[in-house]
Specification:
By secondary structure, the chain is mostly beta strands. It has one helix at residues 87-93; strands at 8-12, 15-19, 35-37, 48-53, 59-63, 69-74, 79-86. It contains 1 helix and 7 strands, in the order βββββββα.
Length: 94
């Protein structure tokens, strides 16, 4: 997923991978990620199934195998919100 600032977020079995803004997607093949979000950084599970950006620019991650939890990376603080949010609450905020 490419966010509104042009950064790339890639869901994987090893976590959520973030790359800086690039001029072409082909550049991803030659770069190391800026960060990989895993359970060590607040994800409920490492295998990320869905990601999306909300109207605040926060990035929400829904891991595979965790039925109701989602984790959020808060753009304003550039930190992981380690409080997990129920999906029902999440859909009300979009």
């Amino acid at each position: 997923m490419r966010d509104h600032l042009g950064e790339w977020w890639i869901a994987s079995a090893q976590g959520l991978v973030r790359y800086r803004k690039l001029s072409a997607i082909e550049q991803l093949a030659h770069l190391r990620p800026d960060v990989i979000f895993t359970t060590l950084r607040g994800l409920p599970a490492n295998e990320v199934f869905r990601i999306f950006e909300d109207s605040r620019g926060d990035i929400w991650k829904h891991p595979r195998g965790v039925r109701r939890d989602a984790a959020r990376w808060v753009r304003a603080t550039a930190k992981e919100d380690i409080r997990r949010t129920w999906i029902g609450d999440l859909t009300m905020r979009l």
